[in-house]
């Protein structure tokens, strides 16, 4: 295991690096519970400074040629690429994911940054009659607040930064207090490289009090938030005070449907990782697995074998496939859910170890066909515990899959892709994958149905959420 001294990082405001005033926040390594770094807890004055800087920069940035905005996104990507090894180690130290997965998140951030930089959102020519010319333009909103969660902190920050900047907005990004280190370090690297015009991108850190202050601030014209449904409702209520736009990517309880014509060994392993990637801390991870009765027993055996064979540990150690849960709050929620499931009398195919510590480790746990009204089925665990559930016919399983307040993602697994697609069209979610785990792309829209969100990220539709519509109606005769 390689571990470096814990850094003390600074915020990036108006093109300058800003240190803590007063006591900094400690960021813990979830694998060791030791100090991973320290960051500023932004004061009201510092937060106001960031918003004001973004407001000043908006006038110039919104008028900048599109190619100039593209170039800044490419410069951001170049800084990330140049410092990938350093950033990956820092990401593992604060988030807990294995080093290979941290590199994967950095690759994803680069892909999004460079992919969004190439996208178009041109004005649309509606009609030119000889007497009238009518066009629709997409104009930037102003200052955007990006509120980023702790599970995929860097990639999801880029999901907000890249479209905001490309469309001519400026942004204040606030990472989770659990995982601010990598994002703040990128701010430091951008300052050193002088890669972003002053005020266009600002990165502030702090406790949970910062998010509400951003979302209710009259200088913020849009809030892009990823997190829980409960917090998303609070963000939306705060935004309503100033009629700020919102894009909310919220919770999920994604159902996977496994048909009897699958190759059991292949699908069981693929679906295991669709459930347990990032230790189950992924909004679109499969969280309920419905398996046809004809193959349930064979599938459950193989799924349990994979679960039992996974190496869990410190993400810096060689061969580790799953790291710890990211923070103690989430760890205690997951442990309590497992204990309550056991107390209910449910059977376990695998009841993973929960070591005493240090570290927030919970080994993969698989529940054997619990009741549909049990908490392990109804709730989003956001951790390494998944129920397998039997079903007998398609109408039944579609009804059960849709019996959730959430509607983020889902998947169907079958040897007949056409039959699987017919089922997929009946699933009430924003995206459904057929014969693979979650995959997303910068040019494809992503958003939830029901209480899983409002609006979309990515794709042209996601870009346009960072703009207002303007009609230019000209008489030309």
TrEMBL record:
The keyword Heme does not apply. Keywords: Oxidoreductase. SUPFAM superfamilies: ALDH-like (SSF53720). InterPro entries: Ald_DH/histidinol_DH, Ald_DH_C, Ald_DH_CS_CYS, Ald_DH_CS_GLU, Ald_DH_N, Aldehyde_DH_dom, LUC3-like. GO terms for molecular function: oxidoreductase activity, acting on the aldehyde or oxo group of donors, NAD or NADP as acceptor. Residues 20-470 form the Aldehyde dehydrogenase domain. The active site is at residue 249. The keyword Oxidoreductase applies. Belongs to the aldehyde dehydrogenase family. This is Aldehyde dehydrogenase. It comes from Streptomyces violaceusniger.
């Amino acid at each position: 295991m390689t571990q470096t001294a814990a850094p003390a990082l600074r915020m990036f405001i108006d093109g300058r690096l800003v240190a803590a005033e007063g006591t900094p926040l400690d960021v813990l390594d979830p694998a060791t519970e030791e100090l991973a770094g320290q960051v500023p807890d932004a004061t009201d004055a510092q937060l106001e400074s960031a918003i004001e800087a973004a407001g000043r920069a908006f006038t110039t940035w919104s008028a900048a040629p599109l190619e100039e905005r593209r170039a800044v996104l490419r410069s951001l990507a170049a800084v990330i690429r140049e410092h990938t090894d350093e950033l990956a180690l820092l990401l593992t130290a604060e988030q807990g994911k294995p080093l290979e997965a941290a590199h994967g998140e950095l690759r994803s951030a680069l892909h999004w940054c460079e992919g969004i930089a190439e996208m178009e959102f041109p004005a649309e020519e509606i009609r030119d009659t000889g007497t009238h010319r009518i066009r629709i333009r997409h104009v930037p909103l102003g200052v955007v607040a990006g509120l980023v969660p702790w599970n995929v902190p860097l990639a999801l920050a880029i999901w907000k930064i890249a479209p905001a900047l490309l469309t001519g907005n400026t942004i204040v990004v606030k990472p989770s207090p659990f995982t601010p280190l990598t994002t703040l370090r990128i701010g430091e690297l951008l300052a050193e490289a002088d890669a972003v015009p002053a005020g266009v991108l600002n990165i502030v850190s702090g406790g949970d009090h910062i998010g509400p202050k951003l979302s209710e601030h009259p200088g913020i014209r849009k809030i892009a938030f990823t997190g829980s449904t409960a917090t998303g409702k609070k963000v939306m209520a705060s935004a309503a005070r100033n009629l700020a736009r919102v894009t909310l990517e919220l919770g999920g309880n994604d159902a996977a449907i496994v048909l009897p014509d699958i190759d059991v060994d292949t699908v069981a392993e693929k679906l295991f990782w669709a459930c347990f990637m990032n230790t189950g801390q992924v909004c679109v991870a499969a969280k309920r697995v419905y398996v046809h009765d004809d193959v349930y027993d064979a599938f459950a055996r193989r799924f349990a074998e994979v679960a039992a064979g996974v190496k869990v540990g410190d993400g810096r150690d060689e061969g580790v496939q799953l790291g710890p849960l990211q923070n103690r709050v989430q760890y205690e929620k997951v442990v309590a859910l497992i204990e309550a499931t056991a107390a209910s009398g449910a059977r376990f195919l695998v009841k993973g170890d929960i070591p005493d510590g240090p570290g927030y480790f919970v080994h993969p746990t698989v529940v054997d066909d619990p009741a549909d009204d049990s908490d392990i089925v109804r709730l989003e665990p956001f951790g390494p515990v998944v129920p397998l559930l039997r079903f007998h016919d398609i109408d039944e399983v579609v009804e059960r899959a849709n019996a959730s307040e959430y509607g983020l993602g889902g998947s169907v697994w079958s040897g007949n892709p056409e039959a699987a697609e017919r089922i997929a069209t009946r699933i009430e979610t924003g995206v459904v994958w057929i014969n693979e785990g979650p995959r997303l792309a910068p040019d494809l829209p992503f958003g939830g149905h029901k209480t899983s969100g409002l609006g979309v990220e990515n794709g042209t539709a996601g870009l346009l959420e960072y703009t207002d519509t303007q009609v230019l109606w000209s008489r030309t005769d």
